[in-house]
Specification:
The chain has about 625 residues and is of the alpha/beta class. Helices cover about 50% and strands about 15% of the residues. It is built from 24 helices and 17 strands. InterPro entries: Conjugative_coupling_TraG/TraD, P-loop_NTPase, T4SS_component, TraG-D_C.
């Protein structure tokens, strides 16, 4: 008896998550039997109390069977009633959701539910033993052309509710993965509209130039009654475009040189290439030279210096610096006068005289490392110098050719449109759409994106160091096309300046390809994002990476065994056996292959803190 008791205690119950409500037939049978028995007994004049007792017992069993069967049938019906069509809501409905989220210091991510191990077990059942329950549904959920639109029943595994994520979680940065037409643009519309509603700065970097994304951002500003907050930048539409002075915001001149160096490095490490380091040094010296002359550094002025002989520029800077330090005229004149009594008038002669005066006299009391760097460049071997800065010339040419010469290096005296800087966007809480037009010219578009990203990264550092941070939302579509070291820095450290970066891409391989094929650098980008939102993805490597991120869980797996045999004893001709077992098997919380089956506008998200959400987002219509 004790052994039997221990055995019973080891038995673990296992409930099939989905099946038809077979108990409903028994419920109707019990109900009919109770009703017919009552009516028949009354017709035959039988005593009332026994009839009521038997009918009540039948009714109890009918109700008990109905409850169990109805529960199973409801779950099955929910799968078959799962929305295979898109979810549309009005602008008024959306703004109600936005307001509720804002009041709770949160952001609304549509509707959904927490993805738990119990949810995963239900999914695996329908992918395995219960596949016949959803196969008709999958055949039904296709377009008129026969295109499969996804396994819509996945979202019916649990009861959905509004998904609200605390705004603090967004400081951990967000990676959005999704193939073409999976819903990245609609997700951005949802997030951008809420940022506008909160009155925060928004910067949208769009390589493709999605007109609808720009239009929706503009409408969001208009709905708030602040249409002036919207700014539009697009090199293909210079007549409608504002100008962005990418070198207009800075606290340290070295930061301007770093923005140019970011163009050379593209996605690589800005310290790993001697050409990058040399290019940074040259830009830094030119920029400090312009500042000594009292001139504002621009991409156009830097291009001019790179493409021309810097001797005259060096002489002008040297003269200006010496005059700023009030040299004694008689001493300076003595250096400028040759042995024959003539004052040097040609450029080489004057340069030699001024350099000698600086090094022998002025450097003793007013040495300038910046000026000495410029002098060092001027004295550098010309052929070697030209080879080391060869990569600067095409990049600066790209960014200063028409119409970018006025859009990225605007002159306030001649440009009559709106001129922005990164700092101005932040100070005025603007909503700035930046189209890169990479479809028409990918090289120039990527260069624009890189210099703007470098400007933002530099400004984030200034905000962190010198200002009281306030939220700035940066949305980068097709992020692999503009990914560079400054963006990686924003992902890594921008949260301290309250920069919330949303980086969308189709595959993780795109990120590695942009970073010179470095998977290690790609992993750094992925590791710097605490939130990951996965829409439909079809790249196998991306699927497997996300499955590993979501982790595993111990899944209960039932096993059955049947056996039969023939006994040698004449009186016992055959025997049989049956056994059931249940084991715990480590299984992926979400199978990698099913990311390709997510319908459009549905996602699986891993948010900061480890919460996993299955959700869907609406299409907002006026």
């Amino acid at each position: 008896m004790a052994s039997s008791s221990r055995f019973r205690n080891q038995i673990q119950p296992y409930e099939i998550p989905f099946r038809p409500g077979l108990e409903l037939k028994a419920a109707w049978t019990w109900g009919a039997a109770g009703a017919l028995g009552l009516m028949g007994g009354l017709a035959l004049g039988m005593p009332l109390m026994p009839l009521l007792t038997t009918s009540s017992i039948a009714g109890f069993f009918a109700w008990n069977r109905y409850k169990i069967g109805h529960r199973y049938q409801q779950k099955l019906d929910a799968l078959h009633q799962s929305a295979g069509h898109l979810w549309f809501i009005s602008t008024d409905e959306a703004e109600t959701h936005y307001r509720i989220a804002r009041e709770k210091d949160a952001i609304w991510f549509g509707r959904g539910f927490r993805w738990t191990k119990h949810t995963a077990e239900r999914m695996y059942y329908l992918l395995g033993p219960g596949a016949e329950l959803v196969e008709p549904l999958e055949t039904k959920q296709t377009t008129e052309s026969g295109e499969f639109i996804g396994k819509v029943w996945i979202h019916a595994l649990e009861t959905e509710r509004d998904i609200l994520l605390p705004l603090d979680a967004l400081k951990g940065q967000t990676l959005i993965l999704g193939t073409t037409r999976a819903g990245k643009t609609r997700l951005y519309d949802l997030l951008i509209s809420q940022a506008v509603e909160r009155g925060e700065s928004v910067i949208i970097i769009d390589p493709k130039g999605d007109k609808e994304l720009a239009a929706n951002a503009k409408k969001a500003c208009e709905r708030m009654g602040t249409p002036e907050r919207f700014a539009y930048f697009h090199p293909a539409h210079p007549e409608d475009s504002c100008a962005i002075d990418v070198l207009g915001s800075w606290n340290r001149a070295t930061g301007l040189a770093s923005r140019i160096a970011a163009l050379i490095s593209a996605g690589g490490d800005s310290n790993s290439d001697p050409f990058i380091s040399f290019g940074w040094r040259v830009m830094n010296n030119f920029i400090h030279g312009l500042l000594i002359l009292g001139q504002k550094p621009t991409l156009k002025s830097l291009r001019t210096l790179v493409e021309t002989n810097p001797t005259e520029f060096t002489l002008a800077v040297l003269k200006a610096y010496i005059q700023q330090n009030d040299p004694k005229p008689e001493i300076l004149h003595s250096y400028l006068t040759a042995k024959n009594g003539k004052v040097a008038e040609d450029v080489p002669g004057q340069l030699a005289a001024y350099k000698k005066f600086y090094r022998e006299v002025l450097s003793k009391t007013a040495a300038s490392p910046e000026l000495e760097g410029l002098l060092s460049d001027e004295e550098h071997d010309k052929e070697h110098f030209s080879k080391m800065i060869v990569s600067l010339t095409p990049l600066l040419a790209m960014l200063t050719s028409r119409p970018l010469d006025t859009l990225l290096s605007p002159d306030p005296t001649t440009f009559h449109g709106r001129i922005l800087t990164a700092q101005r966007i932040i100070d005025q809480n603007l909503v700035t759409y930046i189209g890169l037009d990479t479809l028409s010219d990918s090289a120039v578009g990527q260069a624009i994106g890189s210099i703007i990203a470098a400007d933002l990264a530099s400004t984030a550092g200034d905000v962190y160091n010198y200002q009281i941070p306030k939220p700035i939302n940066i949305f980068i579509d097709e992020g692999a096309e503009v990914l560079n070291q400054p963006i990686i820095q924003l992902l890594n450290k921008g949260g301290g300046a309250l920069f919330r970066v949303f980086l969308a891409t189709q595959t993780l391989s795109d990120i590695a390809a942009r970073l010179n094929g470095s998977q290690q650098r790609a992993n750094q980008v992925i590791g710097n994002t605490n939130n990951t939102i996965v829409l439909r993805i079809i790249d196998q490597n991306t699927q497997e990476t996300q499955t590993r991120k979501f982790g595993k869980f111990p899944m209960s797996r039932m096993g059955t065994a049947l056996g039969s045999g023939i006994s040698p004893h004449p009186m016992d001709m055959n025997n049989g056996s049956y056994s059931e077992s249940m084991n715990l098997v480590d299984t992926d919380l979400f199978p990698s292959s099913e990311f390709a089956s997510l319908p459009a506008l549905q996602y699986l998200a891993h948010f900061s803190g480890g919460t996993i959400i299955k959700g869907r987002i609406p299409i907002v219509r006026d």
